[in-house]
Specification:
The complex is a heterotrimer of chains A (103), B (167) and C (703).
Chain A lengths: L3 H21 L3 H25 L7 H31 L13
Helix pairs in contact in A: 1-2, 2-3
Chain B lengths: L2 H19 L3 H21 L3 H25 L14 H22 L16 H9 L3 H29 L1
Helix pairs in contact in B: 1-2, 2-3
Chain C lengths: L8 H4 L3 H15 L5 H30 L19 E10 L2 E9 L1 H24 L6 H20 L3 H19 L6 H32 L16 H5 L9 H16 L8 H4 L5 H10 L1 H11 L1 H5 L2 H22 L5 H21 L3 H28 L17 H15 L5 H14 L4 H30 L17 H6 L13 H16 L11 H6 L10 H23 L10 H6 L1 H7 L4 H27 L6 H21 L3 H15 L6 H21 L1
Antiparallel strand pairs in C: 1-2
Helix pairs in contact in C: 2-3, 2-5, 3-4, 3-5, 4-5, 4-11, 4-16, 4-21, 5-6, 6-7, 7-9, 9-12, 9-14, 11-15, 11-16, 12-15, 12-16, 14-15, 14-19, 15-16, 15-18, 15-19, 16-17, 16-18, 16-21, 17-19, 17-21, 18-19, 18-23, 19-23, 26-27, 26-28
The chains are: A mainly alpha (103), B mainly alpha (167), C mainly alpha (703).
Chain lengths: 103, 167, 703
């Protein structure tokens, strides 16, 4: 039988894969996609918690997941739009090239 | 562990790993689509049908397409100068990922509630979700709708600025 | 405690009082600049409704507190206990504890809210006239509304955290309003100074707040089950704190730091006179009538903590007395009409703090309320004079204004007598209460000190106020009658004023004089609410559990005699023979060097320059050295040398500039070291975040 721990370990693994991509890849699009992977891992974890919770009728995990998906969609839209603008401006989407955050 | 769980796990993990490692960006996005389908499969498996459909609609239908557009609009089909497997960059990333993973593993392992099995008869139907969303969750619901509007306007404004610059 | 069923409507809707001005401020912040009438109307309407609600609250409180006993002997009230009407709500909860905020309606709240909202309303109306020509009229009313909302929120709060939030909002509003004419360097500097100096006190306040939460587990002042922070004061008095004080004493001392900053007590009084750079209605509203009273109100609100520690009360009394006398001596030698009033405010706040210190909470609050009326009156009167004299602020360039501005003169006259403490105006009764409380404080010469200082202060107060009246209103006009136009004090101020016949003072419009008249009436008659002994309604209302003082004819006679003596000496020096233009201050001949000492404000600014600012500069060097030693691998020796020479350069600049920039410099230098961590790459930030989160989680598990 599948236990809650299986789901959580799987979600952790996916989250860690996403994190690895986000800190390693130089291409801004891939970084954004990695962040989407992390979002999905978190949603998987939330829904699994809901499935195994003592009060599933509260639907808390499901609600969190739905809102998470919504916010991730908004983030992806703005993020990818920014990537396009950055490309037009720098002619490159290498994240290492963007250093104007430096104080 | 049953067969469905194992198959879905393989699909999602493979999709995720390919998505973050493949050089060809189009291939990476397609792996990501695979990953999104896997996650949606998990949602169905967990009786959260509605979330599963939303996942497919939003991620596969919108985010992945958006990503492909972004790849094509930036003329950046392959990431040429990504570092190699044993570069310092990859090793650092792996070390960080391993650290975080160890913490998560430790947290999951030290929690007794994690070993429970799934209770029967847990399901979510759309009517309940809709009712909840309009009662207990109405404030987050409105806030999220505001956020979506803001994101939409923001994306348009960013694009329009570019158009006016080109004139 | 009243059972929950008896809570009247107003007590459970107390939050409306601060909310309305906040809303008005929020809406007018969004209005375009041209909507002048709408924004002013919103602000005045909101504060007007708040005033009505405050009056409702006051009426309910009076019904609850005084009337049940009206038919009986007054003495029956002496054993009556304190009461509060509470409403509370949960802000958020974490785990099993929740952070509750709430509002309280008790006599203190009712009296303070009424005074604050009423005076604010009059000042709002007055501002219509005063700021008439200013192009940032809308912004001004936005800030005023923000201020009024924060101040009223502070008054009705039943929670030290909510109190602190509003307290800081009041500070922000004050900063914005002092620096309203921000393009004028002196105004910008004054705003910065006010903000930083009061923040010094707020550090203490915040530490006290945290400590109180740690010790009692709650920040509610009162709770329905009597476990509020203040209701545990006696228990705290039994626990040890620092420096030999009890825990209650330590917390009280820390909270008092906040009050010292906000109420301009020595040694943090230096910001208040500089704050007069703001528009005059702001000076009246914030730096005379309401905001500076917040510190006194804070002490009155947390008074149980202070009562539990006699040592802290002694310190409070002495600081108050010292401030009262020091500021009064400075006030006698100032030339700027607003600065005289500013130092007078510092001095009167000293009286209030002294009253708190000697155990007369009701007396101090009485003086606060009365002072709110007559000091607002004086400031608005001063504003009217400045307005009428074409932005002249130097009293030696005025004179004879009486015949040009009769309404302003007579109202100012009433305010002067009230402040000087002349029978039967408001200041007489309230100052008498404070002095009687000081007189009755303990035995021995040490405990008579504040009383003696207070009495000298009475003489000085009467003197400097009469000096001002003589110089401004009597005699002949000494302004630049011959020259065409007016002095160009600043473009903005020039824009605010009416272009009439140059050189001759003129009366202000009705929108400015009517508030003056109303305030004058209040200043004249409100004092009767606090007649000594059994008829002392204010005392019975505010502090029902303590008996009022008996009439002390010695105190009354001494104070009145000294006040008349002050007026008399002032008249001898300035009134008998009116000064001609360019004639020096006759005080110079009489006091010599002592006058210079007073005129230069006891050299406090210079002292802080030589000590605090220099210390901050040295500390900046030391801290920087330490940081660089730790960071030595990445920051080479060359950079070190460069940094040191940079600091040397800065050090010279600051020693010459004589500003508070030194402390900012420390922060900047530390920031420079941390900047090494920030290479501008998002991914390195992300790496840091991930590692830090993992380490934190590990630490959490292992603990």
């Amino acid at each position: 039988m599948t236990t809650l721990a299986h789901f959580q370990i799987l979600a952790s693994l996916l989250f860690v894969i996403g994190l690895f991509g986000a800190v390693t890849r130089r291409n801004a699009i891939v970084v954004l996609l990695s962040i989407e992977i992390m979002f999905n891992a978190a949603n998987l974890s939330l829904v699994a918690f809901w499935r195994y919770s003592p009060h599933p009728e509260q639907l808390s995990g499901v609600m969190f997941a739905i809102f998470g998906i919504t916010i991730a969609a908004a983030e992806a839209a703005v993020g990818l739009a920014l990537v396009i603008v950055i490309y037009r401006y720098y002619k490159s989407i290498e994240v290492d090239g963007m250093r104007s955050l430096k104080g | 562990m049953d067969t469905a769980f194992i198959i879905l796990s393989l699909i999602t993990v493979a999709g995720a790993v390919w998505a973050v490692t493949l050089r060809n960006l189009i291939h990476a996005v397609l792996s990501l689509v695979l990953f999104f389908f896997g996650i949606a499969g998990f949602f169905f498996y967990l009786n959260a049908d509605f979330v599963g459909w939303v996942q497919i609609l939003v991620y596969v239908g919108a985010v992945a397409i958006l990503a492909i557009f972004a790849v094509m609009l930036t003329h950046n089909l392959t990431a040429e100068d990504e570092p190699g497997f044993f570069s310092l960059r990859w090793l650092t990333g792996m070390a960080i990922a391993a650290t975080v993973g160890a913490v998560l593993w430790f947290a999951i392992r030290s929690n007794a509630a994690m070993s429970q099995t799934a209770p029967a008869g847990v399901a979510s139907n759309v009517a309940d979700i809709g009712r909840k969303m309009m009662t207990d969750w109405v404030v987050p619901f409105e806030v999220v709708s505001l956020l979506l509007t803001a994101a939409m306007i923001g994306a348009i404004v960013i694009a329009m600025e570019q158009i006016s610059h080109r004139k | 405690m009243e059972p929950a069923t008896h809570i009247p409507w107003i007590a459970s809707h107390l939050w409306l009082i601060p909310l309305l001005p906040f809303l008005a401020g929020g809406v007018s912040a969004l209005l375009p600049r041209r909507c002048r009438k709408l924004s002013a109307g919103l602000a005045i309407g909101a504060i007007g409704i708040s005033t009505l609600l405050s009056f409702c609250a006051l009426a309910e409180s009076i019904l609850r507190g005084l009337l049940p006993h009206a038919g009986r002997q007054w003495s029956a009230m002496q054993t009556h206990e304190a009461w509060h009407w509470l409403t509370e709500f949960t802000w958020f909860s974490y785990g099993t504890t929740s952070l509750k905020l709430g509002f309280v309606l008790d006599p203190l709240t009712a009296a303070m809210a009424t005074m604050v909202s009423f005076v604010s309303m009059l000042i709002f109306i007055y501002s219509l006239g005063y700021m008439d020509r200013d192009k940032n009229f809308t912004r001004f009313f936005t800030f005023l509304s923000l201020f009024a909302g924060a101040m009223l929120g502070l008054v009705v709060a039943n929670n030290l955290l909510l109190f602190f939030i509003c307290w800081e909002l009041v500070g922000v509003a004050s900063y914005l309003l002092i620096g309203f004419w921000y393009h004028r360097p002196s105004a910008a500097a004054a705003a910065k100074k006010a903000f930083i100096v009061t923040k010094l006190g707020d550090i203490g306040f915040f530490a006290g707040l945290l400590w109180l939460y740690h010790a009692t587990g709650t920040l509610q002042f009162y709770t329905p089950d009597h476990t509020g922070a203040l209701e545990q004061a006696t228990a705290l008095a039994g626990l040890p704190g620092i420096m030999g004080l009890s825990l209650a004493g330590t917390i009280a001392l820390l909270i008092f730091c906040g009050a010292v900053g906000k109420s301009g007590q020595w040694p943090l009084h230096v910001w208040l006179p500089d704050a007069m750079e703001g528009p005059t209605p702001v000076s009246a509203l914030i730096h005379a009538a309401t905001m500076v009273a917040a510190g006194v109100f804070l002490v009155a609100r947390t008074y149980p903590l202070f009562q539990a520690s006699p040592q802290v009360l002694t310190l409070v009394a002495w600081i108050g007395a010292f401030t009262a006398i020091m500021a009064a001596t400075i006030a006698i030698a100032q030339n700027d009409i607003k600065r005289i009033l500013a130092y007078s405010t510092v001095s009167q706040l000293g009286y209030m703090v002294m009253g708190l210190g000697v155990g007369g909470m009701a007396a101090a609050m009485f003086h606060l309320l009365m002072h709110g009326f007559f000091k607002a009156l004086l400031f608005l009167g001063a504003g009217s004079v400045i307005h009428g004299c074409h932005n002249e602020q130097d009293v030696f360039k005025m004179g004879g204004v009486k015949k040009h501005m009769p309404v302003t003169f007579w109202t100012y006259f009433v305010g002067t007598l009230a402040l000087a403490g002349i029978f039967p105006l408001a200041g007489f009764w309230s100052k008498d209460e404070v002095l009687t409380a000081a007189f009755n404080w303990g035995g021995g010469w040490f405990h008579k000190g504040p009383f003696a200082l207070g009495c000298i202060g009475v003489f000085l107060t009467a003197f400097y106020m009469w000096r001002q009246v003589c110089l401004v209103f009597l005699g002949e006009y000494r302004g630049e009658k011959a020259t065409v136009g007016h002095k160009q004090v600043g473009h903005e101020e020039a824009e605010t004023q009416h272009e009439t016949v140059p050189g001759v003072p003129h009366e202000s419009p009705a929108v400015m004089t009517v508030p003056l008249v109303i305030l004058a009436i209040f200043s004249a008659f409100m004092g009767f609410s606090g007649l000594p002994e059994h008829a002392n309604l204010i005392h019975h209302f505010l502090s029902p559990e303590h008996a009022p003082h008996h009439v002390n004819w010695f105190v009354i006679a001494t104070a009145s005699a000294l006040a008349f003596a002050g007026l008399g000496v002032g008249h001898l020096l300035y009134g008998v023979k009116p000064l001609a233009a360019d004639e020096p201050d006759p005080l110079k001949a009489k006091l010599g060097k002592l006058r210079d000492f007073c005129r230069d404000k006891w050299y406090w600014d210079e002292l802080y320059e030589a000590t605090v600012v220099r210390f901050a500069n040295i500390a900046a060097v030391v801290v920087d050295l330490g940081d660089r030693l730790l960071d030595g691998v990445t920051v080479g020796m060359g950079l070190l040398a460069r940094g040191l020479s940079f600091i040397n350069d800065k050090f010279d600049e600051h020693a010459i500039n004589r500003s508070f920039d030194g402390s900012c410099g420390t922060v900047r230098l530390m920031g420079r070291c941390f900047a090494a961590l920030q290479d501008g790459r998002v991914q390195s930030y992300l790496r840091l975040v991930a590692v830090a989160a993992a380490l934190l989680a590990f630490w959490f598990f292992l603990k």
